[in-house]
Each structure stands twice: as C-alpha cells, then as structure tokens.
Amino acid sequence: MKMIRFSTAGESHGEALIALVSGLPAGIPVDLEFVNRELWRRQQGYGRGGRMKIETDKAHVLSGVRHGKTIGSPIAIEIVNRDWKNWEEKLPVEVGDPALHQAVASPRPGHADLAGALKFNFPDARYVLERASARESTARVAAGAFARLMLRTLGIEVASHVVRVGRVALDRAATWEEIAAIASKDEIVLGCVDEPTEARMKEEVEEAARTGDTVGGVFEVVAHCVPAGLGSYANWDERLDGQLAEAVMSVQAVKAVEIGRGMEAAESFGSRVHDPINYAAEDNGKPTRFTRPQNNAGGVEGGVSNGEDIIVRGYLKPISTLRKPLASVRFDTREATSASYERSDICVVPAAGVIGEAMVALTIARLAQEKFGGDSALELQRNFLGYIQQMRSY
Ligand code: EPS
Predict the structure, then answer these.
(1) How many domains does the chain have?
(2) Ligand 1, atom 20: closest residue by C-alpha
(3) What share of the chain is helix, strand, coil (3-state, %, to 5)?
(4) For 76-91, how does the pLDDT look when each residue is reduced to its tens digit (9 = 90+)?
(5) Which range marks the domain in which residue 335 is found?
C-alpha cells in the first residue's frame, strides 16, 4: 500500500523514542537542522518542567535517507532519552531488581493512570505513565518534520501560535506572516503573536506555578497554500475535517478540536458565518481566481480543502500532574490518599502547538500524496503542478 503512514515507540524514561515513517516519495531533500529545530521548538515555552533541562532532543536517522535525500524506503528515527541513565536500573528490560521499581502508587485524576492500570492489569501506574506521557510526542514531531519537508516541495507551509492560556486570550486576528515568524524566534515564551497578551499569559502560568497548579489553553495551527481539493465529501472517512480532528485530538491533553470558527458558528446565524464567494479579474499568482473576504470555514467546506488557509484549534486541558495533588486511592490498599506527584510541567500550550503542526502536516501530506501520487519528488511535483494548472483555467 503506497500511503504515508507513521508510528512511534518508546517510553518516557526508556532508552529512546522511535518514529517510523513510510510512504514518502524518494528525492525529498532532508534538512536535519530543520528536523532538530522542530524538536527544539517542542521543548520550549514558559512553564515547561525540569525534564527539558535534561534533554536536548536530536534526531538520529537510522534508515530511509541517503546522501541528504529520502530514498522511498521506511525512515526510522531515534531520539535518545538522556534521562535513561537515571532509570536504567529502575526500568530494566531484564527482570532486574524489584526493590528498585518506582511505583506510581496512586492514580492522578485526569491522567491515563487509573484507566490504563485497570485495562492492562498493572499493580500500579508506572508503565501507564511511561507510554501515556507526552514525551511520546517527540517522535511525532520528528515524523511531522519529514512530512513538512515533503510539503515544502509543494510550497505548503504549516505554523502555529497560542491563542489562549487559561483565562487570557488573544483578542485580535493574527496574520500568516506573524504566525510563521514565531517559529524562527530564538526564545519562545508562550508563542503568542501579541507581546502584551503574551505577558499576561505568562502571569497566568506564574499564578499556577505559585499555587501548585497547572494551566491549559488553546493553540491554533495554520496550513498555508494548501490547494483546493484535498479530502472528499464522498465518504465519511475521507473528509479532511474528520481526519484533521482525529489527528489533533490524539495529541496528549487535547480535549476539543475546532476547525475555523466552529464554536462561534454554532451560536450565530448562517448569514454571519459562511464566507461569501467572489471571482477576481486577475489570479494574483494564486492557483484560483475564486476569492473569499474571510475564512470562518477554516479552509474546509464539505470535508474538502477550499484553497483558503486550513485553520485547526486544539483545546488543552491543564496538565494532570499537580504539585498540590487531588484526592485519589492507593492501588495496593485502596485507602484514600493524594494522587502521586512526579516532576511535571505547568503549561505546555506552545509545545502542544508544535505537536499539532506535526499532526496537521502528516495529515495533509498523506492526503496530498493520495491525490497526486508519485514515487519520486519529481513525479509528485509534476502531478501537483499539472493539477494547479488545471485549476488556473477554471
Ligand atoms: C515530556 C516529558 C516528561 C514530562 C511531560 C512531557 O518528562 P518527565 O515525566 O520525566 O518529567 O515533562 O509529560 C507529561 C506532561 C505527562 O503528563 O506525563 C516531554 O518531553 O514533553
């Protein structure tokens, strides 16, 4: 089956994380600095925990890339966990010394701990935490970076920004240029395009830090220059919005996904929601002369991309590991106690945005490859340009 697929393996305190990406065409230039920069971006943001001081995530490509280009074979990427040296004896692959096992003795409300322990019949939540942890998202970002490299050859870019942290929301529209510029900053605070708003977001994180709490928020991913025609209304599981929603909802801590102004639309009249259609005299270098004065639909109508920017928002619950833990029960005695606490983050909204970008890029790359096909970058590009040409004449 010729389809872009990816999977990940690895545990939070295991030896390494692994991403396996297959189905990318041969001949895509691989910029490893870009891949590592993406991994760096995922580690940033005000409110990240102590673990980020231990790790400097780097992609070690084991296969599928030779002489700086993809070769059409599966790409295996390893990201070593530096923290492994502190866990080698506590989490050995072999039987090891049971006295060194570090139990997660009481499940954290909001985390996978309880449901996971019940499901897999574990006596405590250690193994659940190890895999359910958002550390796994490192591998997704590495896989996503390769999808982005493919999309780049078609002129498609993906970026994200933070539109809410706790009670503080960005109250103005952001341009594509502003959003894209965040990724090249040397210091990422909270990934908001508006400095005064970002400063207030920072105060929100500070308050959570002071009170032993955590804080969530909303990130927005934008995919730019996606041509009309990706996804389909023909079958329920081919709809672009459905596939984007699944991809973004699968990001750790995301509890809701919105396409365009989905939430507001539910409260408004149709005449205020839908984006009027115009036809321009000139194409202005765009693939189509159909234009829209606004983009409430977030670039998707009827489950199909419509040529406008694709806009997807991920709503994050606050991280479930609390320094001032909530009520829980001991796994061994069933006695009431407080939930386990292990080093964690206070706010991860900008990092989640980077993971959201990876998931959106992987989804769009898969659909682009499905539509345009091609075993080599050249063939993919030729098919893509042929389609753009066809659209220009419409
Ligand atoms: C994370 C690494 C983890 C956590 C976080 C995400 O490292 P550690 O558990 O060693 O501190 O900081 O995981 C969680 C939020 C979670 O709930 O498990 C990372 O690399 O993103």
Answers:
(1) 1
(2) 135
(3) 35, 20, 45
(4) 999 999 999 999 999 9
(5) 5-260+297-392
